[in-house]
Amino acid sequence: MTSEDRDVVDRLEEFRSFLEVVEEAEESVGEWISRRSDDPSVDLTIGGVRYPDAVHAFTRVLREAGWMQPDYMEVDIARYRDNPALVAEASLPTLKRLLTATERGERFNPGYRAGAYDDGFVLRIVDRLVELRDCSSLGDAPA
Description:
This protein is mainly alpha-helical. It contains eight helices and two strands, in the order H-H-E-E-H-H-H-H-H-H.
């Protein structure tokens, strides 16, 4: 892990307490909002999810650091979401792809990101990133 990557993990770790609260909460991190068309002849409702500022700040850290991976589809995100042990062993490139897939999933499926925060998936990724950072700073990075 490079020193730049360690700095990014430091910044992401700042969101840890927020992520813990979200995982334990009874309600979703996102609030579903919808709006019906103003034209009565059109039967259309447009919807999306409103996220708290911390979610946007987390995403901003990823983007500013260049961690959004164009090859994110090479990872089977469902497999990792269903199996926390896989996240606990994931490499840095895989974790970057998982974070990217979570963000990109929102574009095509409103609320996808909320699910990843609510079920602790993003928290597990941050925990693994912290582990990799701590091991690499000791010169003992796991494979």
